[in-house]
Structure formats: C-alpha cells, structure tokens
Amino acid sequence: MLKILRYVFSLIGILFAAYGLITKNFEFQSYMILFLGLMMLVMGLEEFQKERKAYGWLFVVVCVFSLFVSIQGFLLS
C-alpha cells in the first residue's frame, strides 16, 4: 500500500514539474513541492517499517520542511 502511494505521489509531483518546465509557468510549483513532501513522508514510514529509524526520521524532517515551504508558497502567491 505504501509503495503504491509513493509511486502515485512521485508521479503527480513529476507531472507538475514537467508542466512547469515545458510551459515555463511555475504557478503549480507549490503543489509539486507538496506532493514530493508527501512522497518523503511515505518513504519515511517505509523506513520505520524496515526498522531503519535514522533514515525514517531524515525523511520525516525533509517532509516537514517541504510541507512548510509548500504552505509558504500557497500563502505568498
């Protein structure tokens, strides 16, 4: 289940990134960061399940930072 969520979030993030690169319209960049942050959260949960807590916490910290950046992008635009 987590692997499917990881693939879905990464695919959505890549689609937003490709759209921005092709059209040079970066209006959806905050959404891209949001979905990539959610992907990092799922990867952190997978690492916790594998009993690799250091990588799990690293992914969770990156997720929190990217969610903060995404929310700032939503509020400032």
From TrEMBL:
Record key words, sorted: Membrane, Transmembrane, Transmembrane helix
Keyword Transmembrane found: yes
Record-linked InterPro entries: DUF3953 (IPR025018)
Top-rank lineage group of the source organism: Bacteria
TM annotation in the entry: 5-22, 28-45, 57-76
Pfam families per record: DUF3953
Protein name: DUF3953 domain-containing protein
Gene source species: Oceanobacillus chungangensis
Lineage start: Bacteria, Bacillati, Bacillota, Bacilli, Bacillales
